[in-house]
Amino acid sequence: METNIYKNKDDVYGRARVEDNEELKAYYSKLAELDTGALWTVANEIEPWEPISNSVPMLWKYDELRDLVLESARLVTPGQAGRRVVYLINKQRAHVKAACGWLYAGIQVTQPGESTPAHRHKAAALRFIMEGDKGYTIVNGNKISLGVNDFVITPNSTWHEHGVDAEGKTCIWMDGLDIPLVNALEANDYAVYDDEDGQEELVPMNYSPMSYSGSGLIPVDREWDNPYSPLFKYSWESTYNALKNAAQVTDGTPYDGVIMQYSNPLTGGHVMQTMGAAMQLLKPGKRTKAHKHTGSFIYQCAKGHGYTIIDGKRYDWKERDTFCVPSWAWHEHVNLSETEDAFLFNFNDLPTITKLGLYQEKAYLENDGHQNIS
Amino acid sequence: METNIYKNKDDVYGRARVEDNEELKAYYSKLAELDTGALWTVANEIEPWEPISNSVPMLWKYDELRDLVLESARLVTPGQAGRRVVYLINKQRAHVKAACGWLYAGIQVTQPGESTPAHRHKAAALRFIMEGDKGYTIVNGNKISLGVNDFVITPNSTWHEHGVDAEGKTCIWMDGLDIPLVNALEANDYAVYDDEDGQEELVPMNYSPMSYSGSGLIPVDREWDNPYSPLFKYSWESTYNALKNAAQVTDGTPYDGVIMQYSNPLTGGHVMQTMGAAMQLLKPGKRTKAHKHTGSFIYQCAKGHGYTIIDGKRYDWKERDTFCVPSWAWHEHVNLSETEDAFLFNFNDLPTITKLGLYQEKAYLENDGHQNIS
Amino acid sequence: METNIYKNKDDVYGRARVEDNEELKAYYSKLAELDTGALWTVANEIEPWEPISNSVPMLWKYDELRDLVLESARLVTPGQAGRRVVYLINKQRAHVKAACGWLYAGIQVTQPGESTPAHRHKAAALRFIMEGDKGYTIVNGNKISLGVNDFVITPNSTWHEHGVDAEGKTCIWMDGLDIPLVNALEANDYAVYDDEDGQEELVPMNYSPMSYSGSGLIPVDREWDNPYSPLFKYSWESTYNALKNAAQVTDGTPYDGVIMQYSNPLTGGHVMQTMGAAMQLLKPGKRTKAHKHTGSFIYQCAKGHGYTIIDGKRYDWKERDTFCVPSWAWHEHVNLSETEDAFLFNFNDLPTITKLGLYQEKAYLENDGHQNIS
Amino acid sequence: METNIYKNKDDVYGRARVEDNEELKAYYSKLAELDTGALWTVANEIEPWEPISNSVPMLWKYDELRDLVLESARLVTPGQAGRRVVYLINKQRAHVKAACGWLYAGIQVTQPGESTPAHRHKAAALRFIMEGDKGYTIVNGNKISLGVNDFVITPNSTWHEHGVDAEGKTCIWMDGLDIPLVNALEANDYAVYDDEDGQEELVPMNYSPMSYSGSGLIPVDREWDNPYSPLFKYSWESTYNALKNAAQVTDGTPYDGVIMQYSNPLTGGHVMQTMGAAMQLLKPGKRTKAHKHTGSFIYQCAKGHGYTIIDGKRYDWKERDTFCVPSWAWHEHVNLSETEDAFLFNFNDLPTITKLGLYQEKAYLENDGHQNIS
């Protein structure tokens, strides 16, 4: 049955190959009056041979952004802004406020003693911590401490707010949300917490990560039937150690090196219903092979430095730089250090893509799996 | 914890309430140069209080369309067109070729002796048969006969083609596809079957529906690990009988009367990963209550006549008319006959919406659940 | 890794091969005093090379049983007996009251006007109707009419009772329960309904089967989160038609002909958590191939006549005869009619066996898959 | 519908209340000749009001057993014995070689330089390490190092063998297997590895635990579709830390204190299909409340000392002592130390019980949840 040949040309049998003439154009007008159209006039456009992305690869250098981010703290308060964030705009996705595909990313700064309003919305959110000390998030009454390179989730419809203890240091983190997706799907909503002082803490500090700190060990003292992970924070310490341990016994995948997916310990699946995330370790001198796949990915370098080649173009990154790989773009990673590991964090829409049956990938076959840099 | 009050006003604490000034505008320019922006300048827009749809309700009367559909058969051949279809265009979704939300709908005519090219694509497709006799679909080597009001699926990546026996009658059916969604998610692909004579039949005619004709009875002579229903055709006879039986013991739901979801007998879930469908029976004189919910729905009247009130506007339909209900639009149905049942078919994106955790609904509370018609 | 060779002899390396002597026997005594033992003295016994059943094949001829069953109705009332049933005893399972393995089977008679007490228990139950008219079961407030060759479930912990309308005919049916299994697992319980008049009917008669009468059509007007099928009765008419339809397009499996598993339309899985059931159609003259597998099976001929060869011995059956096939016994079926189909019903513990990862099967390879009859 | 009253007396309507007489006895004889019986003669026995266990609580003191275990090493070799194990016999389960219910437990000693034959079987196995150093297990080509209080699995049908490095120390561990259950279900099988030198190591040492060392972090470089955990060893260090962390933020359950279930990181479920295990921390002076539930449990004290009251009788334990709690027995735990935590390991048949819908529990309501000691 599988006799598939990508002909890839729109003049073959099976594609739309109608030459318009006056009679047809008159026909098209009649169709338009009834809010209809002739499919064959658009078919080849809406049935591409391979996935097509409307996003372009982007690189946001932290050196360039940091001052502007800090300036936002001088210009507005969290109370005025709602969320005082500098958000990242993909050159071709400005109209939907996306950094890549239907994913939103932004960089938020919170200063010691500040706190943000508590709210909830259908859009899911995650946080990757870049700088600071004694920052915290409160999600559904759970207060969680934040440290650099920690990964935190505030899922669809959970109440959440952030702040930094007065004795802490200014915190900066990257927010990732599926706002563009949820708006596209016409399903977003929003509510402000009705107490301006924020949420009451319902459990001890760090109740969630302290309850789920052991791999394969589940506390059986509570019920959990939410469609997201009960582990709200994945600490850098835990993630770093897990990757270093794995790196002793495996080289991971050819395309990503040693890579761990943040997962829901109760299901083994992604942390949330629409967005997932991962951390990968590139060993010293590692040069991965190229591949492409559906799904949109936004990366941040957690540690080290290197570059990624995306569709034949080289993008250099170092700690705290953010870049994106659009759907179906060839990509491979290189760790420029010969002595230190490099770590790349990413968040993505893989849960959406895979649940909808839309994931596929392809290996770069030429040149031993390595693109030529144009 | 659930102390949610919809304040619904953008001047409250928790919303973006920044008044721009020269200093801020200069700041915004600097942000723009780095492909970034200030979230608070767009936050209220991208974080709506309630779901917002970009589609409008539409009604396509078959009396008006039928001649134009038949005319397409005079103007082009299936071989020229690829798929000779008149597709339905939502006034606000023309740019994505959608009838509603991210769902595509079209009306296809196939004449006796004609056949269409075989192809496959990541987009999923379904068919609701409107007219004709001895039409057929071949999906992955399974030939299926088509009758009026039958519901047929050709899922993501299955090879499929259509035709009408030479001794048959001209067939007209409604196609439903998630093309706009799959393109938006940058995941579509396409292939033509490499034999222009079409697929070889691998099993006897109607192998699928004949194997799954009994409710709760599963043939155990085959493996099935595909993410879609093994039952490719849901016949009108079977559906009609199931609804008539249920109508004897239940009134169904207040909002839809007696309603059955077409489902995968191996999972109880929707027929495919992205799109679902249902058939509902409105008893004589039935007037359902109004509600709204997320998800996009495209309806066709299979039998009878009546009207649907959508966001306060009345849309009259009779057999073969097609209309759509956008996400979050109030809707209620009325069967105008006092003696005959009315039947409404619909296809929708509920699998997508529910799997992504985005389904919600709300009952219309005033006036005993009935909207006033404007 | 898979270098498995069945050596099948207990004197090989890897088996227990200790020759006892006085020193060891003294040692064994010391172990016994502490309620311990030396594993190697029992290892070969408790680690068999292949599955071993403690049951034997049995055949209960209805001609012989029927009078005795009817006599029970003369001797005791349902109120005296609790359940007035003649239960089937496997010659090697009398101590656990099982017909085969850990499955109980019995034949119950209920006369017009009679009704049985309502009760519930952790053990699951099912019924296969053999004779009669206007019999009924009430399960959790759902009254279900019973006809010959209907299959009915009253799952774990559901309230249930039975009866026959005064204008009906004496009903006889086969009960199947997992009582021996649930008692073995030390988990059974029991309660009598506190109203001796029985349950109140909460929904119209046949609410369940009338709501689920169409294959692949699910009513969406109710929630269902019970771990058993919402379809309480699988009618003979529906089952017969489903098998006849399938028989037109498939020959089924080599071992069973055209066979359908009764399933939960909401999951595609077995009807209940511990027991499943199936109906198979043997075409005229059909002679299936032999195989063996784990799981205990109790059969009843619903229609026609033929024989089954079990571990080389022939067991002739006709309509209403009951027989069992123990775990890991070779079996093949033969329809003795050259013109009529034969139908075999069976219930089994497949859900238990498969969920615990204990299912395996083996084809009979010699003689073209046919056993020699000893 | 839920009008359940435990009447608990066998003379009520709904129970079997037939007084035998000569006519009935003659009838019973006729039934017996046909391998049948009258249900009402056994019904009350096989339909207990509450779960009934055939096991009794047992306590095996390590002080008494240790020398006998070590003596086994003097008396036989692993090659002679197959598995040189002293197995624990429940006083009422000797006929099925069980320590409790259908669970087998044994204590195995392996000396430096020794190794056991490699084999596989349908029965699942687990190990809890009691003494020693540089012991190892090889499961399906994965070599795993063993330390005291580590928990290890060798699931259904995996090849496995054990040994101790020549430079190590004599290792003693507790084996737990579902042999009695799998034999009862007539589904066991066995094979010896065909190379007497044992398995080839397919991956680096400790590949499994090193790949899954971080909570909620899943390596995505491999496929895993086995019905058991990919994490073969749950180290004491990891388990101890997880419990100590949780103990800072929760008191756990009233019945067990701070308790963690060993789980499959890919599903959140039990480690294997039939057996599960858990480790609980009793804070200094902790006295849990009593409850009872279905399921058989075999405990071993990993650290500390205390006692458990089972059905009103006190069983004192200290490190390395083993005891069992049968199905439906009241039990509560006490940590006798006022300064040190106590840790109890247990393995059980909860996966079996819960998957079959047979789990239920009941709190001890009198005396503030504490049994009187008889």
Automatic annotation (TrEMBL), chains A, B, C, D:
Domain of life, per lineage: Bacteria
Tagged with keyword Oxidoreductase: yes
Keyword Oxidoreductase in annotation: yes
Alphabetically ordered keywords of this record: Dioxygenase, Oxidoreductase
Domain Cupin type-2, first and last residues per copy: 107-174, 279-341
Gene Ontology MF terms: dioxygenase activity
Protein name, as recorded: Gentisate 1,2-dioxygenase
Organism in which the protein naturally occurs: Sphingobacterium lactis
